[in-house]
Amino acid sequence: NMADVVISPPNFINHEGKPIPSLQWPLERCINKYNITSTPFVLEPCAVLSLSLRYLPMSVLGSSASNLYRGKHLRDRPFPTEFGVLGDAAWGIRHLADTRFAVVPVFDSTFRVHTKAYNPESAERMRVIFEALVNEARTLINERFTPARDQDQSALNQTGHRYLTIISEWWVAREAIRRHRGTPKRKWWMSLSGWSARFHKARMNFLLAQCQKTLDRHVSQNIRSAKE
User: Fold this and answer.
1) CB neighbours of 200 closer than 8 A, spacing ≥ 6?
2) Residues 126-155, buried b or exposed e (16+ Cβ, 10 A)?
3) S-S: 69 plus which of 74, 86, 95, 137, CB 3.0-4.6 Å?
4) Which pLDDT belongs to residue 225?
5) Cβ–Cβ under 8 Å, residues 42 and 2
6) What pLDDT, on a 0 to 100 scale, did the predictor assign at position 182?
7) Cα–Cα distances in Å, from 90 out to 51, 62, 114?
8) What is the DSSP string of the chain?
């Protein structure tokens, strides 16, 4: 009765029905990392915020096809359609502060990985969607987690804003590298702008890893508290 959404990780199989253990969504990574058993528990908003930022643009919800929602809660908060394949992540961020997330760390659903029947989003479309998702996360921190209730929350807010800035720059650098790799190899290796983008992305990877360690600490603290 405490939860508005119950999330659980799915198993993944290929078209032949064989398991794909290498394919893991954020929730399964957390279950493995923090040695979570089969006991259900409720995630506090700070933990959901940390997880949502840590795995952006992936979603702590994974896919809603493997989750259960309180009917009225979902009807009052319909899924956004403007975020394309990142709709689950956008819903989780937009409604994080007024949604109670419960985790059932049991693999009760199975997803078959297959060729998509639709065309993937273009690089430009994904850039627009990703920027909108980052803006949703900034709005969440500014409007629902500010002012901070304590020092831990204040530190999380600062890390969150820094992480969003860095991951936005990382996305731009990644797309620049992809564009350069679409040119003949000789031109790519001789391109100053190509090497500059590669260096910038490496720098952003380093800074992201630092922020991710901080976010992981927030997640660990909150999950420990929730399990006690």
Assistant:
1) 169, 173, 176
2) beebbeebbebbbebbeeebeeeeeeebee
3) 74
4) 65
5) yes
6) 66
7) 13, 12, 24
8) ---SEEE-PEEEE-TTS-B-TT---HHHHHHHHTT--S--EEEPHHHHHHHHHHTTTS-TT--GGG-EE-HHHHHHSPPPSTTGGGHHHHHHHHTGGG--EEE--S--EEEE----SSPPPPHHHHHHHHHHHHHHHHHHHHHHS-S-SSHHHHHHHHHHHHHHHHHHHHHHHHHHHHHHHTS-HHHHHT-HHHHHHHHHHHHHHHHHHHHHHHHHHHHHHHHHHHH-
Length of the chain: 228
Alpha-carbon Rg for the chain, nearest whole angstrom, is: 19
For residue 184, is the peptide bond before it cis, meaning its omega torsion is within 30 degrees of 0? no
Please check the confidence at residue 203 and state whether its pLDDT lies above 60: yes
pTM of the model: 0.86
Query: Are 20 and 113 in contact, with CB atoms under 8 Å apart?
Result: yes
Angstrom distance (rounded) from CA 160 to CA 137: 9
49: tokens are 């915020």
Closest CA to 175 of 125, 134, 115: 125
Residues 92 and 61: their CA atoms lie apart, in Å, by 7
The answer on pLDDT for 180 being more than 80 is no
90, two tokens: 């956008």
